[in-house]
């Protein structure tokens, strides 16, 4: 007897989105299995944030479908909010509120939230509980937005640029947090620029370039498919640019899918 594969925790098919007539996301399909940590890697402007915002129901796709645990984030908003936690790149949080007030506010959205103290301690902000959000450092603000994404015990989490701008100790702390999520069976979609982060945390990844998936697989599968010794060199070989270079869509590039499996 064959055991059927579990339904994907995230399924996005043929997503498209343009801004002022220019395609930012051009037919992206990805699926993430329950409990998997999936990386979304790409240079600046490759379409990573637009993709995960569509998956999170924060942006409306021009075409394509999204399901999170079988739910449509745009039509089943209430139900999706109970199972999905989103940490966004830009923070829309109210600067005058303290960490404790923000945590209390977000906890109030859920029937069985994580206790406030545990949430704040998990991201290492116990000492900043009474500090206003606007007075925190960039890294501390990022950690608040992660704590808020975890407030409702989500089964699926989207993390956009988890550790950008953080010092090495803060990065390691957040990596442990993601490892803990994985141990708890949480599905994670992780947008990143950082090769070491993706290699360390992700079971599989998609590489985006100019709004398309140009490679997918485990970090090992992608490096061996490109015949390169490291993920960084695989990325260079696939895109012809390094991760700090902007993707302004004006350069010529391969649009062939280098599927690693
Ligand atoms: N609100 C917007 N209005 C107009 N253009 C946008 C908007 N958001 C994104 N874009 C453009 O769409 C393209 C993809 O942007 P997106 O933010 O999705 O890429 P990204 O891979 O997340 O980049 P980064 O790593 O810099 O965050 C870029 O060319 C960007 O300039």
Automatic annotation (TrEMBL):
<dbReference type="InterPro" id="IPR017871">
    <property type="entry name" value="ABC_transporter-like_CS"/>
</dbReference>
<keyword id="KW-0046">Antibiotic resistance</keyword>
<feature type="domain" description="ABC transporter">
    <location>
        <begin position="10"/>
        <end position="235"/>
    </location>
</feature>
<dbReference type="Pfam" id="PF00005">
    <property type="entry name" value="ABC_tran"/>
</dbReference>
<dbReference type="GO" id="GO:0005886">
    <property type="term" value="C:plasma membrane"/>
</dbReference>
<feature type="compositionally biased region" description="Basic and acidic residues">
    <location>
        <begin position="250"/>
        <end position="261"/>
    </location>
</feature>
<dbReference type="InterPro" id="IPR003439">
    <property type="entry name" value="ABC_transporter-like_ATP-bd"/>
</dbReference>
<dbReference type="InterPro" id="IPR003593">
    <property type="entry name" value="AAA+_ATPase"/>
</dbReference>
<keyword id="KW-0547">Nucleotide-binding</keyword>
<dbReference type="GO" id="GO:0046677">
    <property type="term" value="P:response to antibiotic"/>
</dbReference>
<keyword id="KW-0067">ATP-binding</keyword>
<keyword id="KW-0813">Transport</keyword>
<dbReference type="GO" id="GO:0016887">
    <property type="term" value="F:ATP hydrolysis activity"/>
</dbReference>
<protein>
    <submittedName>
        <fullName>ABC-2 type transport system ATP-binding protein</fullName>
    </submittedName>
</protein>
<dbReference type="InterPro" id="IPR050763">
    <property type="entry name" value="ABC_transporter_ATP-binding"/>
</dbReference>
<dbReference type="GO" id="GO:0005524">
    <property type="term" value="F:ATP binding"/>
</dbReference>
<dbReference type="InterPro" id="IPR027417">
    <property type="entry name" value="P-loop_NTPase"/>
</dbReference>
<feature type="region of interest" description="Disordered">
    <location>
        <begin position="241"/>
        <end position="261"/>
    </location>
</feature>
């Amino acid at each position: 007897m064959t055991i059927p594969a579990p339904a994907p925790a995230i399924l996005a098919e043929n997503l498209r989105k343009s801004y002022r007539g220019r395609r930012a996301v051009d037919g992206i399909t990805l699926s993430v299995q329950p409990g998997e940590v999936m990386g979304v890697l790409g240079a600046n402007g490759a379409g990573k944030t637009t993709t995960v915002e569509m998956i999170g129901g924060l942006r409306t796709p021009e075409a394509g479908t999204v399901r999170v645990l079988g739910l449509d984030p745009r039509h089943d908003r209430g139900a999706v909010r109970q199972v999905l936690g989103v940490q966004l790149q830009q923070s829309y949080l109210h600067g005058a509120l303290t960490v404790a007030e923000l945590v209390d506010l977000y906890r109030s959205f859920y029937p069985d939230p994580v206790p406030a103290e545990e949430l704040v301690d998990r991201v290492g902000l116990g000492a900043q509980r009474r500090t206003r959000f606007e007075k925190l450092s960039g890294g501390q603000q990022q950690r608040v937005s992660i704590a808020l994404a975890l407030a409702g015990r989500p089964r699926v989490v989207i993390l956009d640029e988890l550790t950008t701008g953080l010092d090495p100790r803060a990065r390691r702390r957040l990596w442990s947090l993601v490892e803990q999520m994985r141990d708890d069976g949480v599905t994670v979609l992780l947008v990143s620029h950082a090769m070491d982060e993706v290699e360390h945390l992700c079971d599989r990844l998609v590489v985006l370039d100019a709004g398309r998936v140009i490679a997918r697989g485990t970090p090992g599968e992608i490096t061996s498919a490109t015949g390169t010794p490291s993920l960084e060199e695989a990325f260079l070989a696939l895109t012809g640019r390094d991760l700090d270079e902007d993707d302004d869509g004006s350069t010529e590039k391969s649009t062939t899918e280098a599927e690693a499996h």
